[in-house]
Amino acid sequence: MTSNKTRQNLIDATERLLRSHGLAHVTTRAIAREAGVAEGSLYHHFSDKAELLHAVVQYSMGDFRHALESLPLRVGQYTVRENLEHMLQAAFDFQFKIIPITCSLFADHALLARVREILSKHCIGPARSVEALAAYLQAEQRLGRVAVEISAQSAAELLLAGSFHGAMFDQFLARQVGPEAVRLRLHETVRTLLAGLTPRSPEEAPIPNDRKGAS
Predict the structure, then answer these.
(1) What Å distances lie between residue 15 and 58, 116, 166, CA to CA?
(2) Domains of the chain, with CATH numbers?
(3) 3-state SS track over the chain
(4) Whether the Cβ atoms of residue 160 and residue 130 lie closer than 8 Å to each other
(5) What is the spatial distance between Cα 123 and Cα 201, in angstroms, rounded to a whole number?
(6) Could you read off the pLDDT tens digit of each residue along the chain, which spans 215 residues?
(7) pTM of the entire structure?
(8) Distance of alpha carbon 186 from alpha carbon 143, whole angstroms
């Protein structure tokens, strides 16, 4: 088995065990057994359990990383709503996967501190996602496609918080929510933020979705 293959097997094994047993019951010995390698092999690829968990989270990013990295290429392209919905869908998929892992870290203060240390060392974490989205919104502001009076930073935080809220409660309550229902929920999050909360005159106000088509 190649070194890269062994490393990936360890990441996959850790993810499976975390989902089936929870962080508190997942040891490095159990991970090595699940991956079909000697426990010492694990430390050849990862310095400790925290570094392995970090690798699992990074691997789980999937389309979210690409969605964030491609935001600069979408400035002025498509519509702002389409771009935000595309990014938010990828964010939700990632958040839904890792919430059980990240939340369980709060039960192990030493492990949580070590994970924070790794995030700080590599300059990654939730703040980077907000920064990338805020930078996109600022670029669209310069093109006149996003209102200049809004805070791009706050808007980015609200959007990502919205997808996180849905992912968190879907996991916590074991809600069986289909892809289309998630898509519509994220669509409404973006629509509401773009519409704003300030009342408008009857002539300016858009028709609410639940009244469209009503006779």
Answers:
(1) 11, 19, 22
(2) 1-46 (1.10.10.60), 49-196 (1.10.357.10)
(3) CCHHHHHHHHHHHHHHHHHHHCHHHCCHHHHHHHHCCCHHHHHHHCCCHHHHHHHHHHHHCCHHHHHHHCHHHHCCCCCHHHHHHHHHHHHHHHHHHHHHHHHHHHHCHHHHHHHHHHHHHHCCCHHHHHHHHHHHHHHHHHCCCCCCCCCHHHHHHHHHHHHHHHHHHHHHCCCCCCHHHHHHHHHHHHHHHHHCCCCCCCCCCCCCHHHCCCC
(4) yes
(5) 46
(6) 578 889 999 999 998 888 888 887 888 999 999 999 988 889 989 999 899 999 998 888 889 999 999 999 999 999 999 999 999 999 999 999 888 888 888 888 998 999 999 988 888 888 899 999 999 999 999 999 999 999 999 999 999 999 999 999 998 888 888 999 999 999 999 999 998 877 766 655 555 554 444 43
(7) 0.82
(8) 24
Burial of 204 (0-12, 13-18, 19+ CB in 10 A): exposed
How many C-beta atoms surround the C-beta of residue 146 within 10 A? 19
